[in-house]
Automatic annotation (TrEMBL):
GO terms for cellular component: cytosol. Gene3D superfamilies: HAD superfamily/HAD-like (3.40.50.1000), Putative phosphatase, domain 2 (1.10.150.240). GO terms for molecular function: phosphoglycolate phosphatase activity. It comes from the Bacteria. GO terms for biological process: DNA repair. It comes from Acinetobacter celticus. Keywords: Hydrolase. This is HAD family hydrolase.
């Protein structure tokens, strides 16, 4: 028997929040300050990982510069990300899912400081039962942050859906056999996301909202 969906966990950047362009620009700015080559594609590819993992992946030959590069990135991002906002339709989707009695959560590669800032910016703290940031747990695709969210809510993985735009999100969910949904409007391609057997890949927020509603209704009807 299929169990009812009780919890939906969302990635933040590239899934709920339209911030990928600014993240890439800030990473490239920081790299340039320390004369480190960094292409747009490489900068985009690591979105979703925790910052220490980002530094290790992008700048493996200069570990002594990691702290300074990451600080430069963070400073540039905060100073230039005033225009970042939710994708169109996200606010309505979250409010609707919440009104249906679902618990909502966030699992992100952002730092706790960064996540708290954007939660305040979007006035959305109260929408989420729990949020986990990479700075306070293990980075994706390790499933620890998902396990911690499940422990906090008391909801099992088979009653949960993870939604994300990267392979890191979907692999993290796959690692604990959690149902998962990809979105095609973020970082990684449909071809990459399909490698992790998602229930669906939504082309936009409207399609994501409709699919999640369908999953809730189907699970309740069984």
């Amino acid at each position: 028997m299929k169990k009812a969906v009780e919890l939906i966990i969302f990635d933040w950047d590239g899934t709920l929040f339209d911030s990928v362009g600014q993240i890439v620009a800030s990473l490239q700015f920081a790299a340039q300050q320390f004369e480190q080559p960094l292409t747009h594609a490489d900068a985009k590819s690591i979105i979703g990982l925790g910052l220490p993992e980002v530094a290790q992946r992008l700048f493996p030959t200069v570990p002594e510069l990691h702290t300074d590069i990451l600080q430069s990135y963070s400073d540039h991002y905060v100073a230039n990300s005033k225009g970042d906002a939710w994708f169109a339709g996200v606010s309505e989707m979250l409010q609707d899912l919440k009104m249906q009695g679902l618990q909502l959560a966030v699992a992100t590669g952002k730092s706790r400081k960064g996540l708290d800032r954007v939660l305040a910016q979007t006035n959305s703290t109260a929408l989420f039962s729990v949020t986990r940031a990479a700075s306070e747990t293990k980075s994706k695709p390790d499933p620890l942050m998902l396990s911690e969210i499940l422990q906090h809510t008391g909801i099992s993985a088979d009653r949960t859906i993870m939604v994300g735009d990267t392979s890191y999100d979907l692999q993290m969910a796959e690692n604990i056999q959690m149902p998962r949904v990809g979105v095609a409007y973020g970082v990684h391609s449909v071809e990459v996301l399909n490698q992790y057997a998602p229930l669906s890949i939504a082309q936009d927020v409207r399609e994501l909202h409709a699919f999640l509603n369908l999953q809730v209704k189907m699970s309740e009807a069984v």
